[in-house]
Amino acid sequence: MAGAYDDRDGKIWMNGQMVDWRQANVHILTHALHYASSVFEGERAYGGKIFESRKHSERLHFSSRELDFEIPYTVDELEAAKAEVLQVNGLSDAYVRAVAWRGAGEDMGVASAKNPVNVAIAAWEWGSYYGDAKYKGAKIDIAKWKRPSPETIPVHAKAAGLYMICTTSKHAAEAKGCSDALFMDYRGYVAECTGANIFFVKDGEVHTPTADVFLNGITRQTIIRRLKERQIKVSERVIMPSELESFEQCWLTGTAAEVTPVGQIGDYNFEVGALTKGVAEDYEALVRA
User: Fold this and answer.
1) According to the CATH classification, is domain 11-124 in 3.20.20.480?
2) From 136, 158, 202, 277, the catalytic residue
């Protein structure tokens, strides 16, 4: 499948029905378009099976509640719909996007309690999120924006509005020849990239920022668990920007990113070392098990 995302063959599950890809549309006065009342999940299927599918469906429900709306489909119904989308479109290895949003209705101001909640699920073939950086090490910029305080926005929801600064930061990074951008948080601590969590290695020990103001990724949790099973020490802690020069290796994790080595952040360089390669290989074996 190729071409613009609104002009493709296939089917998209939308509010309980399979809809022709090009007909899966919403009205211009959809509340989510104006006020970001939307949550979503990004998932990957390997060999026809979505990795940690149920956790993604559960998180979609959690995110919607954080934005004060309820998804009108149970987790089991979402699971069945995702499987149907893969089957109908003949997909085995694919990216799956589930999205829920406040649609057009009686409200067209900030409040939207009278508006219906819509849900859609699409899937398509999608290769490596960072291209060949997955193998040689991504080059990362440092974003000018910061991850906000949890007192200002529901930071643990996978909500569309939280990605506004991600889009602008990634555009700025790509203009510099980088693959992504690293955020600090509102306190000045190292946080995450625009769509991926980050890990560092020093003296055989793994360090990763505490997920207290950003999304605690499902892939992040998987990698931490797998490292501990291998008796590799993992320290979830505050990481200061000044520490970047002391780390030897670095990688990113995320459903789209999978495990991607990092070769450079700003002026700091990292080796694509044995531990990083081992984590990537272990993850690849796990998702295809």
Assistant:
1) no
2) 158
Tokens of 192: 């995450």
Q: Are strands 138-147 and 180-185 parallel, antiparallel or unpaired?
A: parallel
Q: What is the pLDDT of residues 56-110, one digit of tens each?
A: 999 999 999 999 999 999 999 999 999 999 999 999 999 999 999 999 999 999 9
The class (CATH top level) of 133-287 is alpha beta
Domain coordinates in residue numbering, the chain: 11-124, 133-287
User: What's 24's DSSP letter?
Assistant: -
**pTM of the complete model:** 0.95
Place of tokens 């892939």: 219
User: What residue type is assigned to position 119 of the chain?
Assistant: V
Q: CA-to-CA distance for 194 and 175, rounded, in angstroms?
A: 15
Q: Which two tokens stand for residue 222?
A: 């998987």
**Catalytic-residue membership of 202:** no
92-119: burial string, b at 16+ Cβ within 10 Å, e else = eebbbbbbbbbbbbeeeeeebeebebbb
Q: How far is CA 174 from CA 57, 61, 161, in A?
A: 31, 33, 21
Any idea what DSSP says for residue 115? S
Distance CA 230, CA 207 (A): 15
Q: Taking the CA of residue 40 as centre, how many other CA atoms within 13 Å lie in the half-sphere pointing to its CB?
A: 20
Q: pLDDT tens across 254-273, in order?
A: 999 999 999 999 999 999 99
